[in-house]
Amino acid sequence: IQKMLKEFEPILIRDFPQDFADKIRAVDTWKPDVILATPVEGPEVAAIAGARGIPSILTSLQVILPSRDQPTMLGEPRCFPRRILGTVLQYLLWRNQRDTRNAVILEQLPAATPFVAASLRQHMLNVFHPIVPMMVGFSPSLYSLKTDWTADVKSRIKFTGFWVVSSDEQV
Q1: What is the pLDDT of residues 135-150, one digit of tens each?
Q2: Neighbouring residues of 34: CB distance < 8 A, sequence distance ≥ 6
Q3: CB atoms within 10 A of CB 163
Q4: Which of helix, strand or coil describes residue 134?
Q5: What confidence tens digit (pLDDT) does each residue in 94-148 have?
Q6: CB distance 23 to 44 below 8 Å
Q7: Among residues 144, 166, 140, which one has the least CA distance to residue 153?
Q8: What's the count of helices (H) and strands (E) in the chain, helices before strands?
Q9: pTM
Q10: In what helix (H) or strand (E) does residue 37 lie, and over which residues does it extend?
Q11: Cα(81)–Cα(22) distance, integer angstroms
Q12: C-alpha angle 2/137/74, rounded to 5°?
C-alpha cells in the first residue's frame, strides 16, 4: 500500500491543486443541499462541506475501519492482528493526505482548518468518532457491525444493500 501511495504522490502533487479548486468552484456554483463523498475524496469533501456549512455523507462499497473481526484490504489470514494492521493502513492513508493535500486545502480554503486532520490522533478520532453518516453499498445480510467499533461508528454506518446502476445510466 505504501509503495502504491508513493507512486501516486507526484500525480497528486501535480493535479490536486486544480482538482480541489474545481471542486470548490462546483460546490459554490451549484450550492448542493448535501455532498456525497467516496473514501478517496472524503477528507477534501469534509473540508469543503465543513467550510461551507453543507452536510456530507461518506459513501463506500467496502468498510476499511480497523477491526479485529474483519480482514483489511491486504487480505491477511485470521491469525494476524487485524485491528493493528487496519490502524497502520489508516496511518498510511492519513500520511498521504498530510503530505500531498492538506497544505493545498488550507491554502485554498482557510475556513476548512477545523476540518483538516492535522495529526494522526485527530484522523483516528474522525475515523472512530465520525460526525457524518456513512452509507455502505453492501448487503446487511452478508456484513454486520463489528463488536469492537465505537458506538459512534455503529450509529452512523448504514449498510444499504448492493448498488446497481443499469447499463443505460453508465458512462
Answers
A1: 999 999 988 999 999 9
A2: 54, 55, 56, 57
A3: 11
A4: strand
A5: 999 999 999 999 999 999 999 999 999 999 999 999 999 999 999 999 889 999 9
A6: yes
A7: 144
A8: 6, 4
A9: 0.87
A10: strand 35-37
A11: 40
A12: 25
